[in-house]
Amino acid sequence: MDRVLEAMIDAARAGGEVALHHFRRGVEIGLKADRSPVTIADHEAEAAIVESLRRTFPDHGVLGEESGSRGSTERRFIVDPIDGTRNFVRGIPIWAVMLALEEQGAITAGVIWEPIRGNLYTAGRGQGAFRDGERIRVSSIATLAEATLLHATLNALRRDGLWDGFVRLVDATSRQRGLGDYLCYTTIAEGKAEVALAANVKVWDLAAAKILLEEAGGRLTDAGGRDSLASGTALASNGLLHEAALRLLAGR
Fold first, then answer.
1. Which of 233, 239, 161 is nearest to 198 (CA)?
2. Nearest 5 degrees, angle CA 41-CA 47-CA 48?
3. 232 contacts 160 by C-beta, under 8 angstroms
4. Farthest CA pair distance, the chain
5. C-beta separation of 81 from 65 below 8 A
6. Helices (H), the chain
7. Residue 47, C-beta contacts closer than 8 angstroms, at least 6 positions apart
8. Of the residues 65, 146, 184, 221, which has the fewest C-beta atoms closer than 10 A?
């Protein structure tokens, strides 16, 4: 494992330890400007992550969900200290720390750490995707009729104008599950589902997931098929079904 991924894993574990302490004792909830929840755990976990990363890579910039952009944008870490905050604040033990390295606009490394379940997902450009050191791959299912469709918050899909396309995907697939957040992407990367659709997502929600999926043989774009992490929507797949899913979303 290279030096960058080792540092990212150490940072994710440091942030996860802080978040887990708050999760076990409970936290007060605030609201951001977009009405999404935020807690002291988010802020303290992000601070621990950034401090850990800067000990090894002091010249890298950071784009953090809570603290915004600081330093270089040519080479920077993208930090989501608690992906699944709504689960976190309700005591649901499905949330993760997500870190990615962006270099000259491309995601080159990613780490997803689940402190409660103890799962560690890692990926580096050209190095493959792994869970706890074991290589993972997307499924070989090549027809939507056999596929499992995952989704995040349903009313976000409606608000973002994706509802009709989502219903077409529901009708075309074998089964559907509402896992949400990072778990959609890790599940596809492990070959346990084939397609996921999400709305109201940000760069830090997707950066680590993108490289994990790509290194596992899958694909992540926005709902229009663009290679963008900033449009607010995400379509993930095992790659084999991506174009078919895009056609349904577009009504073609």
1. 233
2. 90
3. yes
4. 51
5. yes
6. 3-25, 40-56, 85-90, 154-159, 163-172, 181-189, 203-215, 242-250
7. 67
8. 146
Residues 6 or more apart whose CB falls under 8 angstroms from that of 230 comprise 202, 203
Place of tokens 């174009």: 243
The per-residue pLDDT string of the chain (252 residues; one tens digit each, 9 = 90 and over) reads 589 999 999 999 999 999 998 898 866 655 455 545 567 888 999 999 999 999 999 999 999 988 899 988 999 999 999 999 889 988 999 999 999 999 999 999 999 999 999 999 999 999 999 999 999 999 999 999 999 999 989 999 999 999 999 999 999 999 999 988 999 999 999 999 999 999 999 999 999 999 999 999 999 999 999 999 999 999 999 999 999 999 999 997
φ, ψ for residue 61, nearest 5 deg: -80, 175
d(CA 157, CA 18): 32
For position 38, what pLDDT does the model report? 60
Q: Give the CA angle between residues 146, 166, 177 to the nearest 5°.
A: 55
Amino acid letter, 47: A
User: In the structure encoding, which two tokens stand for residue 141, read together?
Assistant: 């299912």
Task: Report DSSP letters for 82-105, one per residue.
Answer: EETHHHHHHT-S--EEEEEEEETT
Q: Is 46 exposed, middle or buried (0-12, 13-18, 19+ CB in 10 A)?
A: buried
